[in-house]
Amino acid sequence: MPKNYIYNLIMLIDFISKKLDTAKYKLLKDKTYFGEIPSLRGVWANAKTLEDCREELKEVLEGWLILRISQFLILVCLLPL
After folding, report:
1. Cβ(44)–Cβ(60) under 8 Å?
2. Residue 63 belongs to domain spanning
3. CATH code, 59
4. What is residue 75's DSSP assignment?
5. Mean pLDDT score across all residues of the chain
6. What is the domain count for the chain?
7. What is the CA radius of gyration of the chain?
8. What angle do CA 24, 62, 39 make, to 5 degrees?
9. Are 75 and 61 a contacting pair, CB within 8 Å?
10. Beta bridge partners of 35
11. Which residues contact 25 (CB under 8 A, 6 or more apart)?
């Protein structure tokens, strides 16, 4: 594999990890969990358990990244935190 591919993959994995570290979670009145990444509008999840909410939030973040990259949108959020 080309070096750039490995570098880009590591960069994306690092980005996902760092953004998930900034996630905020709360227990709602209906006893479900809500999670969001405040710096990324529209990246949120809701699930019955905290663990399921975390997993769903990760999937939403990955989908958000794929959409942004596929549309060649500027990823300002990839700048250093």
Report:
1. yes
2. 3-78
3. 3.30.160.250
4. -
5. 88
6. 1
7. 14
8. 40
9. no
10. 25, 45
11. 33, 34, 35, 50, 53, 54
